[in-house]
């Protein structure tokens, strides 16, 4: 697995849980060994095992959510939810886990962490956060952020987010991430001190690049289209699924109305009474079973949502490539025009329209000394430009290489995860059919036995 | 269908003034004619014909399935066959073969009525005629007129309330045919009604319209006499057993009405659910087109949802065609039964009024005049007929609802079994390992 040259400032040096003596230089070897070990043992609570590069096994969990009130930046009172993050280290020898860190964070801090990662790891498909506001709701689910079901699902989503980072070969080594898990106070200040917000590419610049870039890597163009279409199809799927859930809820609940009328009817019947009572009871059970069924389905919807948001992360990597490529093209263009200017000055021919040409015409020719001076300046600039172009080229190629490696890793992960999601969805449907079918079967048995002929 | 006629006549009402059973009570049921006839040589053929014509709407599931659905309908058929073995049947009627007739003035449907009988009332052993709904309606009115002490089975609804329903659609015609067949079978099974002359004409006449026009009065003695009961008498108290029947029918009809409304609402919700499902499935196909390794699994899920949608459609069709009509039929049945109860009340009221008038005359030798006796006869026969019919009705009702509810449970099970099969069949597809498809994915993804 390729690694981008780690910035010593950002990477853990040495990793705090590492035995002393190891350095990043020897990371390549160490990493492979550890990868093997990690793959065998797996990290607690994380299904994506073979990318965990923590040298000591740790478990991360977002175990609780709590409603808090506080004062916000405008000194106004607000209610928010805080989440408890617990980190445990697991001894190899006896498998016992020891709580090493525990602190509370709110959603906005998770956002801050992610924004930081986006800036410093533009070649990585950064795991997405669970949605900020409840979307794709069907009528029963509350769209309220304070709703306990929403909070619970968000807690799971946040835990998943941290686990994805912890199991990423590169992201897991980030210092700020480590501090997120361990440094309760002043973490926000520490992040802001990195000045990452200043380093972020402006959206406008990125948009400009997207439109104007001439020669992006075809793979990234294709990937961009794929992520757009993925976003569109998953959104559609989630919307329709919500409507399906709504309708199914209606069907089950109306069956519940049978319960009472069958019971009332059974009161006036003799031989039929038992059968009708059982039918009525069964209808009540049937109607109430939908709540659990749909709650399970929400879990499936959450799995789809994660990949909906992942599509945006893919787009971000493509955007970065376009930006870098555009930058490169502009630099090359700039260099070419400077070279041309130089040539024109040297040979005296004015092939293209230039401001100098105009002023020359208006104010007269310049002296040979002036010309020499200008040529010198240009030659210096051309030199600089060539150096810059070389390094930009290198940067660009590195980026493409590293980004594509992470994208391949992501593709594998996506295929695995979505297959798992589809399988568990199918299993859910199967168990639902069996449970309901069994109920109806019981009914038939009772009808058969309690109805008597004269 | 029905159990046999009751073995012993139920006793007359508590207000009987006579100890001895009135001679009229014996002959009114006229069951001697049917029950004691020697089995005809045609009986074997007749019996197999009976098997066929008693095939239930919910029966006939494919022999291959091992689901509880097939075993329950099989059980139904066996039990009915037992009934047939238990008694000698000499009249069999089937309604089938609907055909559309397009005439200048109107378009309508006729049904073929096939009758097989060994009874002396029928000149030929077999008849085949064509009748339309109007004719059935005529028959029912005539039966109500001529046999006012009996419960006449209901007909399916005459008018189609919703403008959306197509009177000539296959589903509507089939639903109606089944109901008309049931109607005739109920009459066939009735020991008194099956001998009614109007019924005979309905089954045998080449051209029913001639009889309709002539308006032949073929009233039995009972019908004639009941017809002349004046409606001016008010009954003080309905006897306990008939009051109980009345109350029962009220509650029964009420509950069925509620169930009908709920069932309709369920069908509506299921159809709306179906609409969404039909959009849901294809989205997985769209997604599948974007993917490499996930293409087959996603396509599989799409097909699976499609299968579930089809299964749901079949379920809602069954609800509409088999469940609702029977509910409606029994509601109509209850209504007609309540009016028979009212007629009975009138007969009793007249008798009691006349009896009181005699008692008030204060004669030395209290002699019950002939017309008061006649009233008493009427009342007691009515009571007897009604009670017999009620028992028969209760039996049929139990059987019909047992079938109905089991049938609906069956259909639901079938639906869930189809869905189950669909989802189980794609699990192996979803779990397929990547290694097997590696050469393909390298190119596609």
UniProtKB/TrEMBL annotation, chain A:
Q: Where is this region: Disordered?
A: 1-50
Pfam families named among the record's database cross-references: PX (PF00787)
* Sorted UniProt keywords: Acetylation, Endosome, Lipid-binding, Membrane, Protein transport, Transport
* Transport among keywords: yes
- CDD domains xref list: BAR_SNX4, PX_SNX4
Q: How does it sit in the membrane?
A: Peripheral membrane protein
Primary location: membrane
Q: Name one GO molecular function term.
A: phosphatidylinositol-3-phosphate binding
Which GO BP terms apply? Answer: positive regulation of autophagosome assembly; protein transport
| GO cellular component terms, A-Z | early endosome membrane; plasma membrane; SNARE complex
| InterPro entries documented for this protein | AH/BAR_dom_sf, PX_dom, PX_dom_sf, PX_SNX4, SNX4, SNX4_BAR
Q: Which SMART domains match?
A: PX
The places in or outside the cell where this protein is found are: Early endosome membrane
Every PX domain range: 61-187
Quaternary structure annotation from Swiss-Prot or TrEMBL: Heterodimer; heterodimerizes with SNX7 or SNX30. Interacts with WWC1/KIBRA. Identified in a complex with WWC1/KIBRA and dynein components DYNLL1 and DYNC1I2. Interacts with BIN1.
**The family this protein is said to belong to:** Belongs to the sorting nexin family.
Summary of the function given for this chain in its UniProt record: Involved in the regulation of endocytosis and in several stages of intracellular trafficking. Plays a role in recycling endocytosed transferrin receptor and prevent its degradation. Involved in autophagosome assembly by regulating trafficking and recycling of phospholipid scramblase ATG9A.
Supply the name of the protein.
Sorting nexin-4
Q: Which organism is it from?
A: Callithrix jacchus (White-tufted-ear marmoset)
Gene encoding this polypeptide?
Answer: OSBPL11
From TrEMBL, chain B:
| Location of region: Disordered | 1-44, 54-73
UniProt biased composition (Low complexity): 63-73
Q: Is Transport among the key words of this record?
A: yes
Protein's membrane topology: Peripheral membrane protein
Pfam families, per this entry?
BAR, PX
Q: Name one GO cellular component term.
A: phagophore assembly site
* Domain PX, residue spans: 89-210
- Keyword Protein transport found: yes
Its subcellular locations are: Early endosome membrane
Q: Which PROSITE patterns would you find in this protein's record?
A: PX
Q: Which GO molecular function, any one, fits this protein according to its record?
A: phosphatidylinositol binding
Quaternary organization? Heterodimer; heterodimerizes with SNX4.
Family indicated by similarity: Belongs to the sorting nexin family.
- What protein name is recorded for this chain? Sorting nexin-30
Q: Which organism is it from?
A: Callithrix jacchus
């Amino acid at each position: 697995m390729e690694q981008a040259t780690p910035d010593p400032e950002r990477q853990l040096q040495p990793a705090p849980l590492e035995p002393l003596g190891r350095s990043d230089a020897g990371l390549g070897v160490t990493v492979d060994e550890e990868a093997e070990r990690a793959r065998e043992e797996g990290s607690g609570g994380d299904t994506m095992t073979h990318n965990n590069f923590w040298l000591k096994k740790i478990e991360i969990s977002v175990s609780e959510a709590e409603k808090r009130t506080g004062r916000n930046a405008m000194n106004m009172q607000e209610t928010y939810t805080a989440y408890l993050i617990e980190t445990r280290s697991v001894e190899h020898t006896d498998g016992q886990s020891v709580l090493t860190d525990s602190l509370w964070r709110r959603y906005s801090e998770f956002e801050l962490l992610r924004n930081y990662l986006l800036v410093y790891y533009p070649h990585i498909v950064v795991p997405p956060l669970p949605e900020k506001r409840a979307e794709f709701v069907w009528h029963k689910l509350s769209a309220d952020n304070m709703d306990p079901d929403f909070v619970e699902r968000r807690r799971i989503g946040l835990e998943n987010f941290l686990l994805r980072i912890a199991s990423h070969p590169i992201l897991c080594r980030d210092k700020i991430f480590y501090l997120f898990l361990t440094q309760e106070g002043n973490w926000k200040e520490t992040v802001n001190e990195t000045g990452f917000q200043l380093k972020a590419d402006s959206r406008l610049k990125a948009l400009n690049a997207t439109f104007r870039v001439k020669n992006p890597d075809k793979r990234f163009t294709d990937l961009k289209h794929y992520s757009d279409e993925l976003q569109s199809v998953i959104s559609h799927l989630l919307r329709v699924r919500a409507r399906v859930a709504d309708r199914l809820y209606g069907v089950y609940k109306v069956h519940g109305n049978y319960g009472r009328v069958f019971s009332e009817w059974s009161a006036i019947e003799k031989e039929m009474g038992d059968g009708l009572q059982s039918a009525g009871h069964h209808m009540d059970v049937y109607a109430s079973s939908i709540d659990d069924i749909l709650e399970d389905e929400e879990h499936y919807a959450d799995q789809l949502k994660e990949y909906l948001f992942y599509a945006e992360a893919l787009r971000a990597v493509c955007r970065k490539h376009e930006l870098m490529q555009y930058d490169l093209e502009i630099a090359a263009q700039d260099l070419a025009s400077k070279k041309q200017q130089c040539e024109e000055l040297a040979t005296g021919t004015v092939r293209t329209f230039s401001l100098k040409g105009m002023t020359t015409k208006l104010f007269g020719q310049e002296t040979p000394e002036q010309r020499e001076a200008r040529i010198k300046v240009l030659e210096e600039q051309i030199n600089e430009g060539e150096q810059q172009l070389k390094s930009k080229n290198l940067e660009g190629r590195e980026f493409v290489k590293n980004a594509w490696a992470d994208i391949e890793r992501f593709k594998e992960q996506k295929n695995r995860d979505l297959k798992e999601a589809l399988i568990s969805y199918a299993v859910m449907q199967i168990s639902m059919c069996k449970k309901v079918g069994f109920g109806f079967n019981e009914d038939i048995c009772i009808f058969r036995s309690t109805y008597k002929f004269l | 269908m029905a159990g046999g006629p009751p073995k012993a006549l139920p006793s007359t009402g508590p207000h009987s003034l006579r100890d001895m059973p009135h001679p009229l009570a014996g002959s009114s049921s006229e069951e001697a004619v049917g029950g004691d006839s020697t089995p005809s040589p045609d009986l074997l053929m007749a019996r197999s014909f009976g098997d066929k014509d008693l095939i239930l709407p919910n029966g006939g599931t494919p022999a291959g399935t091992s689901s509880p659905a097939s075993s329950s309908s099989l059980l139904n058929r066996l039990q009915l066959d037992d009934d047939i073995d238990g008694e000698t049947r000499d009249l069999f009627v089937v309604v089938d073969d609907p055909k559309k007739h397009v005439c200048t003035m109107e378009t309508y449907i006729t049904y073929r009525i096939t009758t097989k009988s060994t009874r002396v009332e029928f000149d030929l052993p077999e008849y085949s005629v064509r009748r339309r709904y109007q004719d059935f309606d005529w028959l029912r009115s005539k039966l109500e007129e001529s046999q006012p002490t009996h419960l006449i089975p209901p007909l399916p609804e005459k008018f189609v309330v919703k403008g959306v329903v197509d009177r000539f659609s296959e589903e509507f015609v089939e639903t109606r045919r089944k109901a008309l067949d049931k109607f005739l079978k109920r009459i066939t099974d009735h020991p008194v009604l099956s001998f009614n002359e109007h019924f005979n004409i309905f089954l045998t006449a080449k051209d029913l319209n001639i009889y309709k026009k002539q308006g032949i009065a073929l009233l039995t003695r009972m019908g004639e006499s009941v017809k002349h009961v004046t409606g001016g008498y008010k009954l003080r108290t309905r006897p306990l057993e008939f009051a109980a029947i009345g109350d029962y029918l009220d509650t029964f009809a009420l509950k069925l009405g509620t169930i009908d409304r709920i069932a309709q609402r369920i069908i509506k919700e299921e159809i709306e659910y179906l609409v969404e499902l039909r959009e849901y499935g294809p989205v997985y196909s769209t997604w599948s087109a974007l993917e490499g390794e996930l293409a087959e699994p996603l396509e599989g899920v799409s097909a699976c949802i499609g299968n579930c949608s089809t299964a749901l459609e079949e379920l809602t069709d069954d609800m509409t065609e088999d469940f609702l009509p029977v509910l409606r039929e029994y509601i109509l049945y209850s209504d007609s039964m309540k009016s028979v109860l009212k007629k009975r009340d009138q007969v009793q009221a007249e008798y009691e009024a006349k009896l009181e008038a005699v008692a008030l005359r204060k004669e030395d030798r209290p002699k019950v005049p002939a017309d008061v006796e006649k009233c008493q006869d009427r009342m007691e026969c009515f009571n007897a007929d009604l009670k017999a019919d009620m028992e028969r009705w209760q039996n049929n009702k139990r059987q019909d609802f047992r079938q109905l509810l089991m049938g609906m449970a069956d259909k639901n099970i079938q639906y869930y079994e189809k869905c189950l099969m669909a989802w189980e069949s794609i699990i192996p597809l979803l779990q397929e390992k990547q290694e097997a498809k590696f050469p393909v994915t390298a190119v596609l993804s």
